[in-house]
Design goal:
18% strand; four-stranded antiparallel sheet; single chain; Glutamine Phosphoribosylpyrophosphate, subunit 1, domain 1; seven-stranded antiparallel sheet; 11 strands; Serine Threonine Protein Phosphatase 5, Tetratricopeptide repeat; alpha+beta
């Protein structure tokens, strides 16, 4: 692990600083100074890339994080130059390394001494810069596949804690980065306090219905406990979107013959499902969601039916739960049971096209089976 203090890169920045010598720098409005700590990181198992950040600044997620699947991730902060985000990703997309992109961006900026910039590329190379004009404490730590950086911190220990936690935390990139932020906060964080936080992870076709790469994209713009809220929202996001996204991208990994990533992601999906069931054993929505995933992805059809039936007992009369019970029966070849349940649902909601489609699917399956 290599630690670079705020006066690093003196040789690189010397030309820029010299050019500004003798000309008083314009003061930066306090509202634009971003006391921030962040992490840019790469998942060696899946290729995911991401940024996580917390700051005493309104809506930090609108300013600091940039990422593109299979290209890289960028964090631009301190007196942030937001052009660094899209320009950095464009450079990475052309094949430049993280170091090349950072150096080129900094060399082109007349206010480089006030910038803080970190980039990780799709090969896991990370590089960062902290200008000498950033408010203290400012610095960064780079490691294998990540960089942590911050300014207006209580001290170097914030970054050390973030780096150590990220390296020692297993599993998905998003919770690893969240854990790093939480470690930084416990170590003192931004000396001015906290206000907002954001988490961005990208994966090819990992976004909503596979239409974009935003595997995780959440933020808290103004809260007294932004990290706690971010962690809470991540839990909701995971239960709502990530199971389907995982299964969809497992198919994508397999299509690209990235079988190691597919296997890792399947293992993580099963771990996440089990964690959901342990945390919410009597939540009918969780039980129903997990049952649907287990059944429709042929992971454990018997277990799926068991969970769906339990959900129906906990929330009697919920039509969507009963539809899941019917789907589980269908997946097990229990066509008569599936048809009976779906027929009742159609009778209760005759205008529901989805129930009609389900009933037709079940009837056709029974007919094809010859039973």
């Amino acid at each position: 692990m290599k630690f670079l203090r705020s006066l690093s890169w003196l040789v690189l920045c010397g030309g820029i600083l010299h050019a500004q010598h003798g000309t008083p720098a314009a003061p930066v409005p306090e509202s634009e100074v971003m006391g921030t700590f962040s992490i840019v990181a790469w998942d060696s198992a899946t290729g995911d890339l991401g940024v996580a950040v917390q700051s005493k600044f309104l809506g930090v997620g609108a300013v600091v994080p940039y990422a593109r699947a299979e290209v890289g991730a960028v964090a631009t902060q301190a007196w942030a130059n937001t052009e660094f985000g899209p320009r950095g990703l464009e450079m990475l997309g052309r094949g430049e390394s993280a170091r090349q992109a950072v150096e080129e961006l900094i060399q082109s900026d007349s206010n480089a001494n006030r910038r803080q910039l970190a980039i990780v590329d799709a090969r896991g190379n990370a590089f960062a810069y902290t200008g000498g004009g950033c408010q203290q404490f400012a610095g960064h730590v780079t490691g294998n596949g990540y960089s942590v950086q911050g300014n207006i911190l209580v001290g170097e220990g914030v970054l050390r804690a973030m780096a150590a936690t990220f390296e020692s935390t297993p599993g998905d990139l998003a919770p690893r980065m969240l854990a790093a932020l939480e470690a930084g906060e416990r170590a003192g964080g931004d000396k001015r306090g906290k206000q907002s936080a954001a988490l961005l992870v990208v994966r090819d076709k990992g976004g909503y219905s596979g239409y974009n790469d935003r595997f995780v994209d959440i933020r808290v713009d103004d809260d007294s406990l932004p990290l706690a809220q971010l962690r809470r929202i991540y839990g909701v996001w995971e239960g709502t979107f990530l199971f389907d996204a995982r299964m969809r991208t497992i198919d994508e990994f397999n299509s690209k013959k990235n079988f190691a990533a597919a296997r890792t992601e399947m293992e993580r999906a099963v771990q996440a499902i089990n964690a959901q069931l342990r945390s919410h054993p009597d939540d009918p929505d969780v039980l129903t969601r997990v049952a649907w995933i287990l059944a429709t992805h042929d992971l454990d059809r018997e277990r799926a039916l068991e969970l769906a039936k339990r959900a129906a007992v906990l929330a009697p009369g919920r039509l969507q739960i009963l539809d899941t019970v019917a789907e589980c029966h269908y997946r097990l070849g229990h066509y008569d049971e599936a048809i009976a349940i779906e027929t009742e649902l159609v009778a209760k909601e005759p205008a529901n096209d989805e129930f009609w489609k389900q009933l037709q699917k079940f009837r056709e399956a029974k007919q094809k089976s010859g039973r």
